[in-house]
Amino acid sequence: MQEEFREEYRKANDSVHVPEELMERTVKAVRTEERRQKTRYFWKYAAMAACVCIVCFGGWKLTMGDRIRVQDVTFSSGEMQIGLTLGNQEAKPDGEEKKEQLTVETYQMEEKGNVPEELWAVEPSRINGEEVFLGQTEDGRLHAAYETGGQIYYIIEESGDRDFLIEYLKNNL
């Protein structure tokens, strides 16, 4: 009996024919929907990947990029000795006169006390991945100190030219 019902069902279904136009429209609509879903899928994951890249780049820039803070600092002792002056006193080509305004002192790690203690207390800046302590005194001079390779560098920029000092640090760190 069940076999008879199956046979009747097949005959009934075989007698039903879909018009050709309806079949073409349906196939076309299915293909359009599949294309639309693939496009949506692509853009969804492309947007997520872009967000991840922005977050990673921002995090890297925040931790590794240059972060320059020059803070006001007052030294308790007004007397300081200068160890080494860059530049010469003779005729200078363009740009050389600025080097005279920059004083660089180098100390061993044990001689950290030669750099004013107040400079080490300011919030450190980051230049080329190195911590640099930058401060500006009331007389307008800029002071920088950093440790690298077992040595301490103490730099004084006499004229208060912040851009020149930062450029010097970027080139020498």
Commentary on this structure:
The chain is of the alpha+beta class and 173 residues long. Helix content is 43%, strand content 19%. It contains four helices and six strands. The protein has helices spanning 2-15, 20-64, 117-120, 162-172; strands at 71-72, 102-108, 125-127, 130-136, 142-148, 151-157. Strands 1, 2, 3, 4, 5 and 6 form a six-stranded mixed sheet that branches. A hairpin with a 2-residue loop joins strand 5 (142-148) and strand 6. It is rod-shaped, with a radius of gyration of 37 Å. The relative contact order is 0.12.
Task: Tell me the structural class.
Answer: alpha+beta
Tell me the major beta sheet: 6 strands, mixed
What sort of overall outline do the alpha carbons produce when their principal axes are compared?
rod-shaped
Query: What is the radius of gyration?
Result: 37 Å
Helix content: 40-55%
Order of helices and strands: HHEEHEEEEH
How far apart the termini lie comes to 93 Å
Mean pLDDT figure: 77
Low-confidence stretches: 78-93
Share of residues in strands: 15-25%
Total helices: the number is 4
Record field, number of beta strands: 6
